[in-house]
């Protein structure tokens, strides 16, 4: 049962936020802590079923964009997060990054580029059973190294164009000489998108405020200095709010998480979704349909929310306690899919 939970506060659509500091909250779905295990989300969230952004706004980032420059598909790529794969190529320019649990308590990324597609991304790794559910709503292209036949077949059954290292004869993939296998597969990302520029651009997935100051979390949340998440007993990651850059700076396993230039990875928005994980097979499968608890962080503040997703082709929706749509800050977003069993979330004021 719930030992301590953050109160759900109204958004700017209702009454002004109530002052008060957040205490450190440990939301654990396993690890013997038994917190929030019996709480239930609002029964009938009423957030808009599909966001509509005006012309000139990047569909996956909510920032201004030249409409002519965005007429190309998004590119989703499975990216390695093994310690030997760091620093990764191109994560700093991704619009959206999903972090998901895989075997051995490790995590892997499903990153999506559209606003700013770099020349190269990687290391590219194999598909997992939850990826069709995570990526189908984006359309466009998905690239990965390979995978178990049943997982590859499921990904090929989606509307996305599959670009697969194990089947590639185009030369879009290369093995980097300065990296050890299997953490060495690199994709020519910009070239891949250019070759398939006839595919449609992605539809908007999330709702964005006009500015960072107008986000729902800033207006209805509580100040939060650090967000700590654990997907298993092995390792953790943290996001520290940096007012100077108006972004959350990422760390893993107690060290700054860097890109290839030595700059710390950062996010404008951090979403933590509490998800069920099917562990009946040898590969854990995150279940990203239905609904569950969430925490939305933007502008140095965090608010509780409900996430819901009607099916693989539907976007993720975020609602407050009254069922109203939550608006994010314009910018990039990382989405942490933290297991309800064996994972935890800590919000530090």
Automatic annotation (TrEMBL):
<feature type="domain" description="DUF3048">
    <location>
        <begin position="229"/>
        <end position="335"/>
    </location>
</feature>
<protein>
    <submittedName>
        <fullName>DUF3048 domain-containing protein</fullName>
    </submittedName>
</protein>
<dbReference type="InterPro" id="IPR021416">
    <property type="entry name" value="DUF3048_N"/>
</dbReference>
<dbReference type="InterPro" id="IPR035328">
    <property type="entry name" value="DUF3048_C"/>
</dbReference>
<feature type="domain" description="DUF3048">
    <location>
        <begin position="65"/>
        <end position="188"/>
    </location>
</feature>
<feature type="compositionally biased region" description="Low complexity">
    <location>
        <begin position="41"/>
        <end position="50"/>
    </location>
</feature>
<feature type="region of interest" description="Disordered">
    <location>
        <begin position="41"/>
        <end position="74"/>
    </location>
</feature>
<dbReference type="Pfam" id="PF17479">
    <property type="entry name" value="DUF3048_C"/>
</dbReference>
<dbReference type="Pfam" id="PF11258">
    <property type="entry name" value="DUF3048"/>
</dbReference>
<dbReference type="InterPro" id="IPR023158">
    <property type="entry name" value="YerB-like_sf"/>
</dbReference>
């Amino acid at each position: 049962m719930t030992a301590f939970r953050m109160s759900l506060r109204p958004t700017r659509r209702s009454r002004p936020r109530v002052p008060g500091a957040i205490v450190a909250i440990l939301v654990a779905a396993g690890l013997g802590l038994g917190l929030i295990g019996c709480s239930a989300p609002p029964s009938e969230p009423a957030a808009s079923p599909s966001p509509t952004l005006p012309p000139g706004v990047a569909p996956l980032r909510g920032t201004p964009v030249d409409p002519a420059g965005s007429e190309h598909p998004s590119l989703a790529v499975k990216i390695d997060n093994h310690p030997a794969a760091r620093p990764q190529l191109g994560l700093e320019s991704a619009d959206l990054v999903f972090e998901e649990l895989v075997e051995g308590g490790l995590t892997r990324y499903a990153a999506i580029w559209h606003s700013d597609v770099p020349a190269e991304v990687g290391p590219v790794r194999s598909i997992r059973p939850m990826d069709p559910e995570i990526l189908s709503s984006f359309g466009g292209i998905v690239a990965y190294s390979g995978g178990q036949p049943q997982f590859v077949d499921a990904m090929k059954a989606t509307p996305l164009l599959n670009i697969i290292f194990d089947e590639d004869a185009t030369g879009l993939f290369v093995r980097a000489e300065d990296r050890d296998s299997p953490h060495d597969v690199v994709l020519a990302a910009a070239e891949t998108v250019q070759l398939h520029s006839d595919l449609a651009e992605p539809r908007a997935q999330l709702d964005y405020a006009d500015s960072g100051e107008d986000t729902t979390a800033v207006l209805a949340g509580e100040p939060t200095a650090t967000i700590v998440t654990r997907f298993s007993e092995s390792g953790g990651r943290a996001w520290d709010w940096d007012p100077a850059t108006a972004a959350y700076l990422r760390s893993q396993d107690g060290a700054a998480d860097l890109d290839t230039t030595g700059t710390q990875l950062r996010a404008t928005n951090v979403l933590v979704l509490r998800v069920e994980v099917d562990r009946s097979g040898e590969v854990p499968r995150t279940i990203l349909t239905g609904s569950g608890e969430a925490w939305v962080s933007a502008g140095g503040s965090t608010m509780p929310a409900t996430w819901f997703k009607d099916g693989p082709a539907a976007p993720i929706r975020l609602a407050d306690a009254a069922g109203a749509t939550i608006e994010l800050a314009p910018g990039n977003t990382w989405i942490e899919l933290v297991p309800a069993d064996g994972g935890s979330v800590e919000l530090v004021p």
